[in-house]
Amino acid sequence: MTLRGHCYCRNVDYELEEPLGPVVSCHCGFCRRIHGAAFTTVALIPTSAIRLSQASVAPSKFTTPLGNVRHFCGRCASPLWNQSPADGLAVVIVSSLREDSQPAPWAHVNVESKAAWFPIEDALPRFSAWPQAEELEQLIRLHPGSWRPHQILGPAVQ
Ligand SMILES: [Zn+2]
Ligand SMILES: [Zn+2]
To answer: What is the pTM of this model?
Structure first.
């Protein structure tokens, strides 16, 4: 199934040519500041899997000091995906996917920098920082059919 997403005003419309990888709710200061929320739920995807739809306007971009490139709608400012040019990976902002294809998060990450006013009250796994490779691998084993980011994890071992 091709997953599709769009910004609030629908000027930017995209599709994903791979299944999503790990889905996490990120509590880091960047996500909180940029998205104006206690956390942002994102899903890993290879950058090459993101395609603009034919009628789509190109998204606006902002490069962070770490070199990651935020993609967002230049008209309505909805965040869409963040791209890490160094490793060919991106994270899609889950709330930009169509309502019927937004996956539930697998875990909370960067919990050590979460907002003091926000209590995490569910039973999902929590990671103080971004999960280490072996922790990601464990999460992926619990979610068969998801995309496996070999750029982080290396080739699959049977
Ligand atoms: Zn828009
Ligand atoms: Zn974050």
So the answer is: 0.94
Q: Is 87 among the domain residues?
A: yes
Domain interval for residue 120: 3-150
State pLDDT tens for residues 123-153.
Answer: 999 999 999 999 999 999 999 999 999 988 9
Say how many C-beta atoms besides its own lie within 10 A of residue 147's C-beta.
18
Is 54 part of a structural domain of the chain?
yes
User: Residue 102: pLDDT above 90?
Assistant: yes
The set of residues, in sequence order, having a beta carbon less than 8 Å from that of 82 and lying 6+ positions away, is: 42, 68, 69, 70, 71, 90, 91, 93
Under 8 Å between Cβ of 68 and 82: yes
Is there a domain that residue 20 lies in?
Answer: yes
Strand partners of residue 69:
63, 83
Domain count along the chain: 1
* 158 Cα to the center of ligand 2, angstroms: 31
Q: Closest ligand to 108 CA? A: 2
User: Residue 25 belongs to a domain with what CATH number?
Assistant: 2.170.150.70
